[in-house]
Design goal:
Blueprint: H1 2-29, H2 34-39, E1 53-59, E2 61-84, E3 89-94, E4 101-102, E5 107-111, H3 114-139, H4 149-170, H5 176-193, H6 197-220, E6 223-225, E7 230-233, E8 242-243, E9 248-265, E10 277-282, E11 290-302, E12 307-315, E13 326-343, E14 347-350, E15 353-360, E16 363-368, E17 370-374, E18 378-383, E19 390-394, E20 403-407
Parallel strand pairs: 1-20
Antiparallel strand pairs: 1-19, 2-9, 2-13, 3-5, 3-8, 4-7, 5-6, 7-9, 9-12, 10-11, 10-13, 11-12, 13-18, 14-15, 15-16, 16-20, 17-18
Helix pairs in contact: 3-6, 4-5
């Protein structure tokens, strides 16, 4: 019976201690705080300052919406020519270097011209001889003698034969060699009969003058000049090398303007217009956009891939764009004027409906909107937002209606 008494005593002690602790705690809680006693009847501030969510806004504007069409393209040069020798000879001077800029008319190649100078002198001497003979013939010409019946008949036959040969030659029924033979026979008959001798001599003089001009042209061809300003490349010859007519010497290219050839699908070609602005991006210049314009639209559709070639003219004053470079082409295919536009990231889709937030008197207002035309950057608003309203473009993904916001830049 000793243990139950000890348990009872311990239980009573615990109960008494609990009552004392409760009494002391209750008494302290009911005492006025030092602050309240000092402030008297002043009200206590218990509400924390409300937090404003930061957002960025852009006013809705009425502007032109441009819908662009993307296409791959390749840069090619507007002006490129392979310079060839027009006459044979040894290269005396070669005034070109790889990558050298040359001006129009600049002397590039000089061939040894001795042979062509001698040829010109010989042709000039022959011309003077014919000229002298014609002068003497006119000065000491004898009175025309009366032709015999046989001579007259021969002349008539020669004229008829020459006329018939000319007609057959014009129709392609007589070779050039046969025609020349008939012509010489006719001239021989006339000369033998003494008729039109002066006319024939004048014709010979004319032929000699033509040969002089040909010799002069060949002499001039020994000097090769730049047909336009450009850059020298792909040189294939060396000084003192003997070249022949039509042999390739080097290439001259002008890249101050570049042509970009884009391939547009047949279904989109109706949207292409001459003069439309084009944005071009080249992998060699990341982040940069070059501006060109549509210069021509091919009338032919490629039957293999059903695309049409669109040619874009691009100024290249610094010669940064090189022929052969790949381009990403964005052509203004549709231009819609006077549309209310907001940035693409400004509207959200919730429960299958499109909405945007605008700021009114410091509050974010939820607006359901109707979207029309779109491009990569902007969307047209048909209903729900007016021009000038501040549309939230950042910080709006977790917003609720009437949330207090703070506009930041």
């Amino acid at each position: 019976m000793i243990f139950p008494k000890k348990i009872l005593i311990i239980s009573l002690a615990v109960i008494v201690c609990g009552i004392l602790v409760f009494f002391i705690f209750f008494q302290k809680k009911s005492e006025p705080s030092p602050d309240n006693s000092l402030q008297g009847s002043s009200p206590q501030v218990t509400k924390a300052e409300e937090v404003l969510l930061p957002v960025k806004v852009i006013p809705a504007k009425r502007e032109t919406l441009i819908i662009k069409l993307k296409s791959p393209g390749e840069a090619v040069t507007n002006r490129k020519i392979i310079i060839k020798a027009e006459v044979s000879g040894i290269i005396k001077d070669l005034n070109v270097e790889e990558g050298k800029h040359v001006e129009k008319g600049e002397l590039l190649v000089v061939l040894d011209d001795k042979e062509y100078r001698l040829e010109l002198e010989g042709r000039e001497a022959s011309r003077l001889k014919h000229l002298s003979e014609l002068f003497l013939e006119k000065k000491f010409a004898e009175p025309e003698k009366e032709l015999s019946p046989a001579e007259s008949e021969n002349i008539i036959k020669a004229k008829e034969g020459y006329k018939k040969a000319s007609q057959l030659y014009d129709k392609g029924l007589l070779s050039k060699e046969e025609f020349e033979k008939a012509k010489r026979h006719y001239e021989f008959i006339l000369i033998e009969a003494g008729e039109k001798k002066e006319e024939i001599m004048a014709a010979s003089l004319t032929q000699a003058e033509v040969e002089v001009k040909i010799a002069q042209m060949n002499l001039e061809k020994t000097k090769i000049r730049a047909p336009f300003s450009g850059i020298i490349c792909d040189i294939k010859v060396s000084p003192q090398e003997h070249v022949v007519s039509q042999q390739e010497l080097f290439t001259l290219v002008n890249i101050s303007r570049i042509r970009v050839e884009a391939r547009v699908l047949e279904s989109e070609i109706g949207k292409m217009k001459l003069g439309r602005e084009v944005d071009l991006k080249f992998s060699a210049y990341p982040g940069r956009v070059f501006r060109g314009r549509v210069k021509a639209i091919s009338p032919i559709v490629n039957p293999e891939d059903k695309t049409c070639k669109v040619i874009i003219d691009l100024p290249n004053p610094k010669e940064e764009i090189k022929p052969g470079m790949h381009a990403e082409v964005e052509i203004a295919a549709e231009i819609h004027e006077s549309k209310i536009l907001i940035p693409q990231g400004a509207y959200l889709v919730r429960a299958g409906r499109k909405l945007a937030f605008v700021v009114e008197e410091g509050l974010a207002k939820w607006r359901y909107i109707e979207v029309g035309l779109e491009n990569e950057d902007y969307a047209e608003v048909l209903d729900g937002i007016k021009v000038g309203e501040l549309v939230i473009v950042e910080g709006h993904f977790t917003l609720a209606h009437d949330t207090r916001v703070r506009i930041v830049k």
